Write the structure tokens for this entry.
Amino acid sequence: MLYLVPGINQGFLRDPSVPVAITEGEFKTLALWRLANHGLPTQPRFLPLGVSGVYNWRGTIGKTVGRTAVAWT
């Protein structure tokens, strides 16, 4: 899933001339948004997009819940 900064202008998202910066995590995306707007009263320099953090990419296939099937001798 992509993370977009809350309250972003829809017109800014549709503009193909705007550079895009992709990063991992919501906090880094917010930090890039602050950088994109630093010192500019009008339009941001670039559009930061975030993907879910690496912890959210872990899978659940093959994991068991409860007791494991290991035989203790």
Q: What stands out?
A: The helical segments are 10-14, 26-37. The chain is about 25% helix and 15% strand.
